[in-house]
Design a protein that fits this description.
Helices cover about 75% and strands about 0% of the residues. By secondary structure, the protein is mostly helical. The chain has one domain. The N and C termini lie far apart (about 45 Å). About 35% of the residues are buried.
Length: about 290
C-alpha cells in the first residue's frame, strides 16, 4: 500500500513537472512557432499608434523629447538638481535621459497590459489562435518604439566620447529588462480578465514606481544608507544604474547585474507559466 502511494505520488510529480515544462516551452517558443502571426500583430499595433494622427511617426520622437524637456527644466533649473558626483560633469538632462527612455518603454508596456486581452475580447472568443501572442506583442511594440529613441541617444553619446567596450552589454541589459517586463505584462493582462479594477490600480502603481526609481533624481540625494539599500529591492533601479554606469563610467556594477539576471528570468518564466495555465478560462469570462 505504501509502495503504491509512493508510486502514485512520484507519477503525479512527473506529470506536474512535465506539464510545467510543456507550458514554459510553448510560452518561450510563441514568437517563433507563430512568427507570421507575431509579425502581423506587431506591425498592426505599431502603425496603429500613428496612422490616425496628423504627425504620424513624428510623435515617436516628440513625446519623449517633450517629457524630457519638462522634467529637465523643473529638476535642473528650478530645483537645481545635478547628476551624481561620480558621473563628473555630465549634464543632468543626459543623466536623466539614460534612465528615462528605458523606463518609458517599461511603463507604457505595463500601463497598457491591463487592457490587452479586454481589447481583443471579440477575437479571443470567436477565433482559435495562440492567445499568449497578445502579451508578447503588447511588450514588443513599446520596446520597439522607445528603443528607437534610446538608440538615437546612444548614437549621440558615442559621438561625444562615451563609447566603450562595456557598451556590448547594453543589448543584453535591454533584453533582460524586456523579459522582466513581459513577465509582468503576462501576469497583469491575465489577472485583469477576472479583476477589472486592476486597470486603475496599475496606473497608480506605475506612477508610484516611477518616483521610487532614481530617474529624475540621483540616489545620492538620499543620506540614509539603510533606505538606499532598500532601493536594491526595486529591479528598475538596478536597470537604470546599469545603463548609467555602463554608458557614462564604462563600468559594470556587478551587484545590480546579479540582481537583474535572476529577477528578469523569474518574472518572464513565472508570468508565462501563469498565463499559459489559466488562458483556457479567458473565453468564459470575456
Amino acid at each position: 500500500m505504501f509502495k503504491f502511494a509512493a508510486l502514485t505520488s512520484h507519477t503525479h510529480t512527473k506529470i506536474g513537472s512535465g506539464m510545467l515544462l510543456t507550458l514554459l516551452r510553448e510560452w518561450i517558443m510563441t514568437p517563433f512557432t507563430n512568427y507570421r502571426l507575431f509579425q502581423n500583430f506587431t506591425k498592426q499595433d505599431f502603425f496603429a499608434q500613428f496612422t490616425a494622427s496628423v504627425g504620424g511617426l513624428v510623435w515617436l520622437f516628440l513625446i519623449p523629447v517633450a517629457h524630457i524637456l519638462i522634467y529637465s527644466f523643473v529638476f535642473s533649473y528650478i530645483f537645481d538638481i545635478r547628476a551624481a558626483e561620480e558621473y563628473g560633469e555630465t549634464e543632468f538632462v543626459i543623466f536623466m535621459m539614460i534612465g528615462y527612455l528605458p523606463w518609458f518603454a517599461f511603463a507604457e508596456a505595463v500601463g497598457k497590459s491591463t487592457g490587452l486581452l479586454l481589447e481583443k475580447a471579440p477575437l479571443i472568443t470567436k477565433v482559435m489562435f495562440p492567445v499568449q501572442i497578445i502579451p508578447v506583442v503588447g511588450t514588443t511594440v513599446p520596446y520597439l518604439i522607445h528603443g528607437v529613441g534610446f538608440g538615437l541617444l546612444l548614437a549621440y553619446l558615442a559621438t561625444q566620447g562615451y563609447l566603450s567596450i562595456q557598451w556590448i552589454l547594453l543589448p543584453i541589459i535591454f533584453l533582460l529588462q524586456f523579459l522582466f517586463t513581459m513577465g509582468l505584462v503576462a501576469i497583469l493582462s491575465a489577472f485583469c480578465v477576472f479583476l477589472r479594477d486592476l486597470q486603475q490600480l496599475v496606473s497608480l502603481l506605475v506612477m508610484i514606481w516611477f518616483f521610487l526609481t532614481p530617474i529624475i533624481y540621483p540616489i545620492t540625494l538620499i543620506n540614509n544608507e539603510a533606505v538606499k539599500a532598500l532601493f536594491l529591492l526595486n529591479p528598475m533601479h538596478s536597470f537604470v544604474t546599469l545603463y548609467r554606469d555602463i554608458i557614462l563610467l564604462a563600468e559594470v556594477p556587478l551587484t545590480n547585474l546579479f540582481i537583474v539576471v535572476p529577477v528578469s528570468l523569474f518574472s518572464y518564466l513565472l508570468g508565462g507559466w501563469l498565463f499559459m495555465r489559466i488562458k483556457h478560462a479567458f473565453g468564459d469570462v470575456l
